[in-house]
Every structure is written in C-alpha cells, then in structure tokens.
Amino acid sequence: MSTGQTMLLALLILPAIGALFAAAMPARLDRAARVGGTAFAAATFGAALFFVPGTTTPGTGAILPWAEIDVPWAPDLSLRFHLGVDGISYPLVALTTALTMLCCAYCLWRVPDPGRGRLLVALLLVLEVGIIGVFLALDLVLFFVFFEVVLLPMYAVIAVWGGADRRRAARKFVLYTLFGSVLLLVGVFTVVSATGTADLVALTDPATRPMSSGLQLFAFVLLAVAFAVKSPLWPLHTWLPAAHTEAPTVGSVILAGVLLKMGTYGLLRVAVGVAPDAAARSAPVLGILATAAIIVGGLVCLAQTELKRLIAYSSVGHMGFVLLGVATLTTTGFQAALIGNIAHGIVTGLLFFVAGGIKDRAHTGELAQLGGLRETAPALSGVLAFAAIASLGLPGLAGFWGEAFAVFAAFERGGPLWSTLGVLAAAGAALAAAYFLRLLRRVTHGAATPAVTALTTEGRLRPGELVAWSPLVLLTLAVGIVPVLVLGYSADPVAALAEVITR
Amino acid sequence: MRIDQVALLPTYVAAATAVLALLVDLLVPGRRGAVIGATAFGLAATAATAIGVGLGLGDAGRRTAFCFGPDQCSLVSDPAAAAVGAAFAVLALGALALSVPLLRTGEVPVGEYCFLLACSLTGAVVLGGARDLITLIVALETLTLPLYLLVGIRRGAATGASAAVTFFVVSVVSTAVALLGAGLVYTATGGLHLADIAHAGASAPELRPLLKVGMVLLLAGLAFKVAAVPAHAWAPTTYDGAPLPVAAYLSTASKLGGVVALLLVGVVAGGPVLATSGLTLAVLAVLSMTVGNLVALRQRRMVRLLAWSSVAQAGYLLAPLGALLASGGRTPDAIGLVVAATVAYALFYVVLEFAAFAAVVAARGSTDGGDITDYRGLARRSPWVAAVLVIALTGLAGLPPGLAGLFAKVAVVRALLGGDAAWLAVVVALNAVIGLAYYVRVVATLFAAPAAAPLPPDSAAPASVGAQVRVGWPVGVAVGVAAVVAVLLGFAPQGVLELAAFFR
Hints:
The complex is a heterodimer of chains A (503) and B (504).
Chain A: H1 3-24, H2 30-50, E1 67-74, E2 79-85, H3 90-109, H4 117-136, H5 140-149, H6 151-161, H7 166-195, H8 200-203, H9 213-230, H10 239-246, H11 249-259, H12 261-274, H13 276-302, H14 307-328, H15 331-362, H16 373-376, H17 378-391, H18 399-413, H19 415-443, H20 450-453, H21 463-481, H22 484-502
Antiparallel strand pairs in A: 1-2
Chain B: H1 5-27, H2 32-55, E1 63-67, E2 73-77, H3 79-104, H4 110-129, H5 133-151, H6 158-189, H7 194-199, H8 208-223, H9 234-241, H10 244-268, H11 274-296, H12 302-318, H13 332-364, H14 378-381, H15 383-396, H16 403-418, H17 422-447, H18 473-491, H19 493-501
Antiparallel strand pairs in B: 1-2
C-alpha cells in the first residue's frame, strides 16, 4: 500500500477512532475526551496536508485521482470501497478537516447547553467521516452510503445542543435531507442498472457512456433535485434557515461550511459528470433557478431581523452563485463554483462563529437589540465587519472570486439568456452588499442597546475564539489575495471535465 | 417413493425438541431452568443440524423426499431450505432467551410454553423445503397454530386473550382464503407440486383466468402471515397483547415464514402467471408501506408503533417482487435479482427487528412494552440498551449508524430499478422518508430528560418510569448478540447477499 493510499484511509479512520474514543470516555473525563477528540481532528488535518498535487495517471476520463484505493466491498450491491482524491475534491477535503479541527478546538473552551461536550465532539468527528467520505468516494454507491452517514449525527447536533425550537428544526432538517438522499438513491441505481457499473471514473469517461439520452435526463433530474435539497437551492431551501437558527455554533459552522458543499460537489462531480448531455440540456433551467436563488436570497436577507437567520439566507444566495457557475458548464464557471464553495465555507464558517459569540454574550440575535456593539465589544464587531465584508464579495477577500467569476462565466457563455442571467446575478451581488451593510449599520453602529451595554467585561475575545477564528481570518485573506491556492489544484481536472462535456 | 431421511433430519430434531421440553417438565417438575435449558439445547441442535445438512449436500446440491417424479418432490433440502431452517431455529432460540424473565414470573406454564415454541419451529423448518401446496400450507399452519396459544398464554391477562382471539379469527379467515386459492389453482392446473403448477401454463389457456384468480387468492391469504395490508389489522392488537417475546417471534420468524411461502407460491410456482403475482404483490406492497407508515406516525405505545412499522416493513419486503409486474422484471436475471433482494431484506430485517424487541424487553421486562414516553431518559439509565435500540430503529428506518438497514434499503431499490419498476422504487424511497419521522421521534425520546412529575408515593406501578428492570443474563446475551450481528452485517453485507443468492 502506497503512502497516498495510507493517507486516504487515515482521513476516514482517524476521525472514526477519535469519535469512538470521545464517546467511550466516562463523564468525569469530559475535558480529556474533548482534548483527545481534538487531537484526532488535528491528526486528520495533518493527513490532509500530506497530499500535494501529485502526478496524475494518464487517461481520457474526467477524473484522474492522485491517489486511489479500490477494493470490492459488496459486489452484489455494485458497491466497491473506491476512494480517491483529485484537484476538485482536495480543497474541500482540506477545508473539512480544517473546520472540524477548529470546531473541536472551540468545544474545548465552550460547550453549548446541555453540556456533555465529549458527545458533541464525537458527533462532529462522525460528521467529518461522512463528509470526507463523500468527497473521496469514486464509487456511486459508496458516495450514497457516505451521503447518508451525515444525516442523523447532524440531526442529533441540532436536536440536543440547539436553541429553543430545536426539535422542530432538527426534524425538518432530517426529513428534508432524507428526501433528497432517497432521490439520490433512486438516481444512483438508475445509473448503475443502465450502465452496469458504479465506478465514477468509468462513468465520467466519455469512451464508456452507454446511457440513452432519455435515461440520462431521468437520472440527471433525480440527482440534481437530490443535490439541490442538500445545497440547498431555491425553492428547496426552506429547511436551512430553521436548522441554522436553532443549531449550536459549531453545528452551524459545519453545516454551512462543509455539509452544504456535498450538494454542490455532488452536482459537479456526479450529476454533471455522469450525465453531461442531460446537464447541457438542463443548463438554462439550472441557470434560471440559480439566479432566482441569488435574487430571492438577497431580498429575503434585506427583511431579516435575526442575525443567524440572515446569515443562513445569505447562504442561499451564495450557493446560487456556485450553482450559476456549474450551470454555465464552462471551465471558468466550474472554477468559480469551486472557489465559491471554498470561500463560502471559510467566510460563512467565520460569520457563524462570530454570530454564535455575539448570541452567547448578548443572549439575543435580534438585530434591533444589538445596536452599538462596536462600543462595548470592538474586537467582536471588528471580526463581524471583516467577515461580512468578505462575504459580500469585496475584491481582495475570499468571497470576491467565486461571484465575479460566476458572473463572468455567464457573460462568457453569451447569448441573450446567459447575459441576462449575468446582469441579474451582478445585481444580486449588489443586494448582498446592501444587506450586509445594513447588518453592520444595525449591529455595530448606532446607540448601544441595554443588551449590549451589559457586555462591558465580556466584550473581549476568549482564547477559544482566538484559536478558532484567527485561522479563518487568515485563510479569507490568503484565498482572497492568492486564489491560485485553490484554483491551482483544480485547473487540470476542471479542464478535463469541461472537455468531457463538450466532447 | 424414496425418502431421504437426512433431508428430514432438522425436522426430526425440532420435533424431538418439543417432546423433550414436555418430558423434562414431566420428569423434573418445578425446575424451570432444566426445561428452558433442554429446549435451548434442542433449538441450538436444530440450527446446527440444518447447517450441517446444508453443508453436507455435496455436488448434487439437494436432497429430496416424497418424490413422484424428478421434479415432483414434496420436500427438498437445498442450501436455501437449510439457511431458512437455521434462521428459524436461531430466532426461536432468541425468543426463548427473551422469554426467560416471563417464565420466571410463574404466570406462564414453562413446559407448555417451550413445547409450543418448538412445535412452531417444526412447522417453520418444514416450510423452507416444502415444494407442494399441501405441504406448504400445512407447514405454515403448524408454524402459526401454536402461536394462538402462545399469544394468550399469560394466566389472568385479559389483553392476551383478546389478542389471541383477534389473531385466531383473522388467521382462520385468511387460511380459508388461501385454501380456496389453492383449490382453484389445483382445478386450473391439475397439479399440487410447485413445479407442475409452474409448467402447466401452456396446456390449457382457457383455464388461465381461473389460475390467475386462484393465485391472487392464495397470495392474499398468505399475506396475512407477513401482516401486509389488507390482512394487517391483527398485528397491532396481537403484538401489544401478547408477551413481548412472542410478539418478537411473530414479527420475525412468523414474518420470515410468510415471505418464504410467498416466494414459493408467487415466484417458484408462478411461472405462467408471474405478471399476476407481480401485480398482486405490488399492490400489497404499496398499500402496506403507505398505510403502515402513516398510521405508525400516530402511535403512542411502543409495541403498537413497532407493529405498524412492521406492517410498513412487510411492504418493503414484498416490494421487490412487485417488479415481476413489468416485462423487464420477468427475465431470469431480473427474477433472480428481485428474489435475492427480498430474501436479503428479510434477513436484514429480522436481525434489526429482533434487536429492537430484545432492547424493549431489556428495558421493560417481557410483559409490557409501555408507552413511548416511558422511554424518556433511557439513554442515561441504561446507555447500552438505548444504543441497541437506536441502532435497531435507525436500521429499520434504513439509515446509519448501523449500515445493515441502509444496505437492506439499497438492495430493494437496486432490484426494483434493475427490474424496470422505477415507479415502485420511488414509492419505496418516499415511504422511507415518512418512516424516518416516527423512528426518529422514538430515538429522540430515548435521549430526552426523564418525565419530571414523580409518581405519587402510594401508587404501585410495576415497571414505573425511571425504574431499572432486572431481566437476567439470557436477555442480555440476546440483546448483545443481536446488536453485534446487526453491526457486523453492516460491514459485511456480502455474506447476507450471497446467502440470499441461494434462493434464485
């Protein structure tokens, strides 16, 4: 077994062992369990850093993994344990391991009610196994298995550590996303029965593409709806605001930071990769929905009065940009989608961390009750302002590239439809600026409210917050200034994918 | 007529177990442990014999008994029959382990209880090898008959008596329907052996409608055993009124028996009228899963919830066979696929369902499953039992952490899409979403804080809220084995799938 294969396995096994370790510790060793869990998360991050863009095997397909494991698991279910990492999945894997590590570290200092932090850390690590598995899977059935693994742990995170209305929000989350994943199940086996293989490498290779166009369309619609629920794409997004508002801080960070990316990643890798002709036929519909999501997300955000809810709806808009990038089916668009994914993961993760910090201190998320935060908590409101500005797409920060490239890709595609969509998306970006600036005006400026003036001593950042937030601030700057950090990895595989579609 | 006694060996051992239980009870009166031990030994021996006969089949692949021709045997012993026999014996052994707290209370005559359980097993063992309609129906009735008594066996329990009567009445009606169907099939084909019926189609086309009606009636009658809608209404009352181990046996072994019978009649004998079998089973499947899931949403009592969920599960069990409706589902390959999927789902299901009942017994004792609210805080009182219940219920919902249920769902959907029945796959998938709503409600209850209001001091509620129930080691072993098997199957589903492939 080569080193690359060992590291692929380590990416799944380390968090799994960490989860068992943290869950099995007795209650009196709660803190030790959290430290141990965080150590396993850090080790996983280390394993992810091991990969450098390797020499890819020569081939004609759209997926040329740097490292690969392929052993049969259950041949009678067409299930193989086939993992691999390439330039499209690698940045997402790295982001997942980094965010999980930061969330576990945050839990060292701050455990949301009702305590039992070791179980929260264990669930975060189980989530990590599922998410990384989705990004690494090169077998459709395995992809589906990992897709299902994250459902109940996330349900538990929301239902146990969430806010006042957590039960309902958690149930809504789990039923909606299960709906998406059963459609994925049907879609996956539609493809598998038609082609006789579940191997993504073979399925995305144009040399072996035996599916008829009608069947492709059927499979693509199922897969696209499944991923649209997860992403979530307007109008299937209604589970998201409730889940985000009620979830604990670390839950929101993982949910927005990486869980949603399973949807957009799946759309790009599985739906577009396996059924490219159907994707080409459906592209205008996807583009229109994406632009609608951008506009609707922005307008709804303008009317929000609650901090976390506003950030949740802003995710709908951002995912709209990512989808617009995918829908153009061009190299530029795919690149925009990938960097948009990563940027949204970093920036929205940071935003939810800060929002959680503010809600912890002020015990309210209502914008009307948070005025004047700048006076009593300058550091907190400074980070909030930074993250908000990054999220609205200021050039030089991470959020810029995904949105600008998506709009650019739409214009590059040309024609009246795509130009109109580009114009509308650009207007949506302006909406994002409007609602984030409104948020900042309400929260950081203005006269201090009673809830905020009570914060005099608590206004400073806590050690856990410094540890968890500073890497995200640095990453926002780094990706903003040197986008090639992400784009460099994905250039070749994206070009290969785009070429497969046009072939 | 040549009779291969080896083929009958598991049946002999099962029947001997029944006699042994009565004899031990007679010879060592008052020693409950001796009776239970002897019965457990007999059940284990039955399982071992079945496996041994299965492994010793040699190159021919099967042994036969009571044959009139090369294909007209009333009883065969092939790997599938051996696997079914062993599975029944293990389930009976598990049910016996769960019964230990019940037998210790003295509310139940121990010798009779063990005798009836072993009798039921005898019918089940024959069922796997039955290849003519009479043997099949007699075996199935031998499986069911002792259960009427077992359901109502607790002395002085009125709910048990009413449960037994409900079960008995519905059972008699459905057996009558099945017999009518068998009669019509015989009239139409002139054959009772499954192979004769399967090959009779071409000879008399004008009798085809009669054969179809007979087949529909036969399948509808047998559907009672798996508690499929419309013959499902007995299940909630009977499960809730019966002692929990008997309910566990009903929802696992008895249901597995129903599946085997439906496979034998609907597919093996269905040759000329496979499409009719497919239509009947598809309708039963869609009705069962939809009705079962929707009604389960509203249940307040644990066992009733499990009963309605098992109605829904019957729908998933029959769903793959619904693919026989489509012409693409009647190619030999597709038939093999759907049969294997049904068997695989049944095997995954019995393990998970048994684990769920075992956890309920471990949490509540073996007489009453209680309300769902009684399970609040179980995760703190007994974390291991709660963990098993979580694995079992999420598995029945088809979700991780236990992968067994996930693979069961995958097998069904895969077979349906492979058999050109995409619409049925979508129905199954959407039902899985409805199903999760109630499973997750129960799972969340386990982790909720215990009910705040304490009972008034003078109330003498038996297993009251928050009380630890001591159930003894056999239940613990049963829970542990079921949980370990469920988890292992999740990592190695191929074993079950290969076993299921014997049924093709």
